[in-house]
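Progress note, project year one: complex with phosphoenolpyruvate.
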Amino acid sequence: MRQTVQFGNGVQIGGDHFALIAGPCAVETRELLDTVADAVAGAGAAALRGGAFKPRTSPQSFQGLGGPGLELLAAASRRTGLPVVTEVLDPRDVALVAGSAAVLQIGSRNMQNFPLLREVGRLRQPVLLKRGAAATIDELLAAADYILQGGNDQVVLCERGVRGFDPSTRYLLDLTAVPVLRQRTGLPVVVDPSHGTGRAELVAPMAKAALMAGADGLLIEVHADPERALCDGRQALRPAEFAQLAAELRRLVPFCGRRWSRPLAADSAVTAAGANPGPLDDEVHAP
Ligand code: PEP
Ligand code: MN
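Model obtained:
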């Protein structure tokens, strides 16, 4: 049976609900975060993503703002009505992150961090578990089991690309994983075409392909000034590009027997924030 995961003010993912989760790779400044948060809310996203704790390959790279970044996310969430999806890196930070976030993200590098999986398994709050870049589907499902066995059944799986041999793209986005996972589990499956391709111009086609393959949602990176981003600028959509993609997805979603998921109060919150209050066309019910 297909499972639905709920969070925030009425957001649902899975079943017939399709949820677009979007925002910057990392929280950098209040201004940049608010600009992107307002833009993705105005475009109809279901949730705001953004890393406060960043898993960076080099210790010299920007590591995220940590606690102050969580506070900025919480403020952006109040401003827009969008619930927050953000990564937790360290089992010792789980309670802190759970206080600001609706959904805790376990990143690909931590897919088999078993103490961290056990810790989020103790929560009764959704967890978005990303597939490791060299993990099989069996390993992803076994990692999810650590969370489920703790009694937390609110798990969303995320395909974000695996290590390929071709440097044309950052990773090899394995869209086959979507129907395979849907066969093997009732847990919702989302796709991250931003990390999966590493290139902004490939995000829209792979996002649409993911919807067609049966994904229950998408995780997409958006930045107001990608050239100056501290992290993953090459794969970030600009707000206008994101709005265009969101509009296209919203037209496609009903044809896939899905409904567009949004927080119940998002329209009024976005209007209050002064962002793009225009009517959200042809909402969005399965025919
Ligand atoms: C992210 O979503 O910002 C991220 C670091 O992703 P991944 O763990 O898939 O590399
Ligand atoms: Mn990123």
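Residues 25, 195, 221, 231-232 surround manganese (II) ion (ligand 2) (CB under 6 Å).
The two ends are 21 Å apart (CA to CA).
No further modelling is planned for this target in the current period.
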